[in-house]
Amino acid sequence: MKRFGRFVLALGLVLSVVSPSLARVATIQTSAPLDNHSEASVKTAISEAVKTAVRGAVAMGLTRVELNQAVVLPNAVVIQILASDTEADDDEQRGDQPGERAPDERPAEPTRRSAEPTL
Predict the structure, then answer these.
(1) Where does 61-101 show beta strands of DSSP type E?
(2) Which of 9, 60, 61, 111 is 20 to 30 A from 54, alpha carbon to alpha carbon?
(3) Nearest to residue 37, comparing CAs of 79, 78, 80, 75?
(4) The Cα angle at residue 68 between residues 47 and 83, in degrees rounded to 5
């Protein structure tokens, strides 16, 4: 029983010294009105929606932002970002992950939908 008490005490000391690395992550979704479906109007709406979402992430103290999705609806543009308070790994910064683009690649153009989204 004495050994168990010492083990518990040692485990408690180790766990109290080691602080857990907890990252804060948030998914932020926002929209911006869309006047028409011209390229300039879509770009302006996406830019406005991204700026709004990034301001929200900064207000929460999240320093890393990644565009997750952009959808063009008949009267609005909806974007979704993933925000975190941790820095990207070296592999992520180089774009080595499958499906990720390299930093110098141009992002894909936003898709246009003519039908209402199903929820």
Answers:
(1) 64-72, 76-84
(2) 111
(3) 75
(4) 85
Q: How far is CA 25 from CA 6, 18, 22, in A?
A: 38, 22, 10
**Residue 94 or residue 85, greater confidence:** 85
pTM of the model: 0.57
45-78 b/e (C-beta count within 10 Å ≥ 16 → b): bbebbbeebbebbeeeebeebeeeebbbeeeebb
Q: How far is CA 17 from the centre of its chain?
A: 31
Task: Identify which of 79, 52, 64, 55 has the alpha carbon closest to the alpha carbon of residue 24.
Answer: 64
Answer whether 91's CB lies under 8 Å from 51's CB.
no
- Name the residue ranges covered by the structural domains of the chain: 22-112
* Dihedral pair phi/psi, residue 3, rounded to 5°: -65, -40
